[in-house]
Specification:
The protein has one helix and 18 strands.
Length: 258
C-alpha cells in the first residue's frame, strides 16, 4: 500500500520584543435579541419585541428562553411558529469592556449563521459581505472602541431552497431533512461563542494549519505521496513596519496502510 504520513506540526513565531498570543478576556454571553425592520435601525421592531438570552443561541432559542414561545422541540409546537418573522435579519446586542493593559482588543466571532453586519458603538465595523459563512471564524480589531462598548450584530438568515434540486442558491449552512424538520428560524443566530481578547502589541499569531495535497499518479510514489503547505497567519497590530523570523518545524511519522 501507499506510505501515509502523520504530520506533527510545531510552529514557533519569533519577533523581537513582541508577545504574539492573544490572552482570553471575556465571552459575550448575555444578549438582547430582536427583529429588524430591514433598515438597520435600532431599537427593535416587528412582531416580536426585544428578548434577553444567555449564552450563544439562535433566535428560536432566545424566544424560548424569554418565554415568548413554548419549547419548539416538544410535540407539534414547531408547526405553530410562523416562518415569516425569520426571513428578515435579527439584532443581537450586548456590551463589552476594554482591557486596562496596553495592547489591542480583538473581537472574535466563532460561529455566525449565516452572515452579519457588525456595529461597535454605532459604527459599522464590518458588513455582511465580509462576515459571511456558518463554519468560519472572524477576528476584528476593536481597539478604537470606548472603554465600555456597545456591540450590535445584524444577523442575516441563510438561504435554503430545497427545490429545484439543481438550484445553486442554497447557502452552505446548517440544514435538515424530512425526518428531522428544520427549525422555523433556519438556525439563524449565534451557534458558537463571541469572545473579546486582549493581544499585546505589536504582532498577533493566529492558529497554524497544514494544507495537504495528495499527488496524482504517476507523481505519487511510496517516498512522496503528498505535498504539505504550512500556514501561519500573522497580523500587525502596531501600525508600523515590522521584521521578524517565522520558524516552522514539521515531523513526519511514516505509517504503512494496506
Amino acid at each position: 500500500g501507499l506510505v501515509h504520513a502523520l504530520l506533527l506540526l510545531l510552529v514557533v513565531v519569533v519577533v523581537v520584543g513582541a508577545r504574539t498570543r492573544a490572552q482570553a478576556s471575556q465571552l459575550l454571553d448575555r444578549w438582547r435579541v430582536g427583529p429588524s425592520d430591514r433598515t438597520g435601525a435600532m431599537p427593535f421592531a416587528g412582531e416580536y419585541s426585544c428578548h434577553t438570552a444567555t449564552g450563544s443561541c439562535t433566535v428560536l432559542a432566545a424566544l424560548e428562553q424569554s418565554g415568548a414561545i413554548p419549547d419548539p422541540r416538544f410535540g407539534l409546537n414547531m408547526e405553530d411558529i410562523p416562518f415569516a418573522p425569520f426571513l428578515q435579519p435579527w439584532w443581537f446586542n450586548t456590551t463589552f469592556a476594554q482591557a486596562a493593559a496596553p495592547g489591542a482588543t480583538l473581537l472574535t466571532l466563532h460561529g455566525v449563521n449565516y452572515k452579519a453586519d457588525v456595529y461597535v458603538d454605532g459604527r459599522l465595523l464590518a458588513t455582511h459581505t465580509q462576515i459571511v459563512g456558518t463554519f468560519r471564524t472572524f477576528t476584528l480589531d476593536v481597539s478604537a472602541a470606548s472603554t465600555s462598548s456597545d456591540l450590535a450584530l445584524l444577523i442575516f438568515p441563510p438561504v435554503d431552497y430545497v427545490f429545484p434540486p439543481t438550484n445553486n442558491d442554497t447557502d452552505l449552512a446548517v440544514t435538515f431533512v424530512d425526518w428531522a424538520p428544520r427549525p422555523r428560524d433556519n438556525s439563524l443566530g449565534l451557534y458558537r461563542a463571541i469572545a473579546v481578547t486582549h493581544a499585546p502589541l505589536p504582532v498577533l499569531m493566529g492558529e497554524p494549519s497544514a494544507a495537504t495535497t495528495l499527488l496524482p499518479p504517476p507523481a505519487r510514489t511510496a517516498q512522496q505521496a503528498a505535498s504539505v503547505a504550512l500556514l501561519v497567519p500573522l497580523q500587525n497590530l502596531g501600525g508600523g513596519d515590522l521584521s521578524g523570523t517565522v520558524t516552522c518545524s514539521a515531523r513526519f511519522l511514516p505509517r504503512n496502510v494496506p
